[in-house]
Amino acid sequence: MSLVKIAGLHKHFGSNHVLKGIDLDVAQGDVVALIGRSGSGKSTLLRTINGLETIDKGELRVDGTALHDGKGDLRALRQKVGMVFQQFNLFPHLTAGQNVMLAPTVVKGMSKRDAEDIAKEMLLKVGLAEKFDSFPDQLSGGQQQRVAIARALAMQPKVLLCDEITSALDPELVNEVLAVVRQLATEGMTLIMVTHEMRFARDVGNKLIFMHHGRIHESGDPRTVFANPQTPELANFVGSVTVAA
Amino acid sequence: MAYQFDFAPVFEHTNLLLSGAGFTLALTAVGAVLGIGLGIVGAICRAWRIRPFDSVFGVYVEIIRNTPFLVQLFFIFFGLPALGIKMTEWQAAVLAMVINLGAYSTEIIRAGIQATPRGQLEAAASLALSRFQIFRHVVLRPALAKVWPALTSQVIIVMLGSAVCSQIATEELTFAANFIQSRNFRAFETYFVTTALYFVMALLIRQLLMQIGQRYVVGRAG
Ligand SMILES: Nc1ncnc2c1ncn2[C@@H]1O[C@H](COP(=O)(O)OP(=O)(O)OP(=O)(O)O)[C@@H](O)[C@H]1O
Ligand SMILES: [Mg+2]
User: Fold this and answer.
1) ipTM of the shown complex
2) Which residue ranges run through the membrane (chain B) (predicted)?
3) Shortest-distance Cα residue to atom 6 of ligand 1
4) Pick from A189, A184, A181, A185: which is nearest to A164 by CA?
5) What's A133's DSSP letter?
6) Given an 8 Å threshold on Cβ–Cβ distance, is B128 in contact with A155?
7) Is B4 on the interface with A (CB under 8 A)?
8) Contact at 8 Å (CB) between A123 and A101?
9) Which atom of ligand 1 sits closest to the CA of residue A43?
């Protein structure tokens, strides 16, 4: 059975019909790469999966928690879906450790001690064990983004959403973040990521989704799809971005 | 003939001045705590558009910010008894200060709340925090830190404004000064010393609030 199931999903912003009937199945352990031109609806789709955008019509189910036409228990859904943003969005008044501890203590009612153990474990996982007491503004962009990943992981989500998480980084900091994501993928974490790192999508992903004008225009195994696009739109898109060997 | 300065007739009443200054500080302390508390509540209602309280606070803020403090005080002390609400001059003074500071701090704190970057709210929501938890753990401290200097100035304005409470015979510093002056007829010396006292108190309050801010609101050194 699929972990994330989306059926007939529609989303409007006013008169702008942004998602025009999305059907998507993601299995446990899948690493899904969402690609497409600016404005094709990638972020919007991702954001509906944890309820940051409402759904006008359609069904969304994550590990048994469902939204029908946008109605359902959002907080239950969000406990199963972690998200990492382009702009890191760390809480500036809290240390790296406190950023990671916040949701486990406040949302899950975990004791401070247990949350601290989890925070240490998660920061270790992203290679930042020694930054537990650093404030966000004392960290590089790459480090901040890794703390943001640790923060999302501390809630033990079933699936992790990543929206262009390396786009705001200086080029030399991109790899340290991608390395963490790659590690998560090998550990079996289910990932759905919007990315412009085509090579990463091809190497790490096992499913590629090309969005075009609010629809899933083409999808399949990344290697096959990149090597042999079936639609002129994807061929055109792949041609316009470099998929370095 | 040159005026002969003589401060001795003022310092005869040092005790009176000090107790007046003490009452002014007490009035300010109570007014600041309750007033900022009220401001936080008002700011939440306004920023989150919690009906009908957002409009209630909106009207309240406009009325208070567009009328003189002295008239507000008179209304509470002399006007309200007509509705059967009677209070001592101390109660009236505290109430007037809380209401006044509450209105200004509602606006100040609301600006701080609304300056929270959207991304932080979304990150908190994506971690399954409730609206209240987001406010309590993500919004409030940075918002207060951002507006703390403005709040500090407002508390000082209210402390200085409390001088008009002497008009309803609240025995704070200005009341004491007026009393002393009426005894010794040394207006220059009396009000010179009183002015100095207010000035020192304002500096002290600013220092104190800045330290409280650094320690408990901004939350870290530097
Ligand atoms: N909050 C919003 N209000 C109104 N319109 C929006 C909002 N968010 C997105 N849109 C519109 O929805 C469409 C899809 O936007 P979306 O951000 O999902 O695209 P994207 O594929 O993520 O693009 P990019 O690659 O630039 O990030 C665009 O036309 C955009 O203008
Ligand atoms: Mg986007």
Assistant:
1) 0.93
2) 20-45, 57-78, 90-109, 190-209
3) A13
4) A181
5) T
6) yes
7) no
8) no
9) 22
By CB atoms closer than 10 A (0-12, 13-18, 19+), residue A158 is middle
Residue type, A20: K
Q: Which residue has the tokens 């008002």?
A: B42
Tell whether B18 lies on the interface with A, counting CB pairs under 8 A.
no
Quick check: B221 contacting A, CB < 8 Å?
Answer: no
3-state secondary structure of A192: strand
Going from N- to C-terminal start, the domains of chain A cover 2-244
For chain B of 222 residues, list the mean pLDDT of each consecutive stretch of 10: 87 94 96 96 92 95 96 96 93 96 96 95 96 94 94 96 93 94 93 97 96 82 40
Percent of chain A with pLDDT over 70: 98
- For chain B, the C-alpha Rg in angstroms (whole number) is 21
The reported pLDDT for the residue numbered B220 is 63
State the DSSP H helix or E strand holding residue A105, giving kind and residue range, or none if neither: helix A96-106
B120 touches A at CB < 8 Å: yes
Whose alpha carbon is nearest atom 18 of ligand 1?
A41
For chain B, give every domain's residue range.
Answer: 29-220
Q: Tell me: the pLDDT tens digits for B32-52?
A: 999 999 999 999 999 988 999
Residues from A in contact with B at Cβ < 8 Å: 50-52, 75, 78-79, 81-83, 85, 87, 89-93, 102-103, 106-107, 135, 148, 151-152, 155
What is the distance between the alpha carbons of residues A34 and A45, in angstroms, rounded to a whole number?
10
Domain A2-244: which CATH number of 3.40.50.300, 3.60.9.10, 3.90.550.10, 1.10.443.10: 3.40.50.300
Question: Cβ-count burial of A220 within 10 angstroms (0-12 exposed, 13-18 middle, 19+ buried)?
Answer: middle
Instruction: Name every chain B residue with its beta carbon within 8 A of the beta carbon of A82.
Output: 126-127
User: A-chain residues within 8 Å CB-CB of B138?
Assistant: 91
Q: Which fold has domain B29-220?
A: MetI-like fold (1.10.3720)
* Model pLDDT for residues A179-201, shown as the tens digit of each residue: 999 999 999 999 999 999 899 99
What phi and psi, each to the nearest 5 degrees, are found at residue B64?
-70, -40
Distances (CA, A) of A183 to A31, A97, A190, B134: 12, 21, 12, 31
Mutate to test the interface with B, among A48, A50, A81, A91 (most CBs of B within 10 A): A91
Q: pTM, whole model, 2 decimals?
A: 0.87
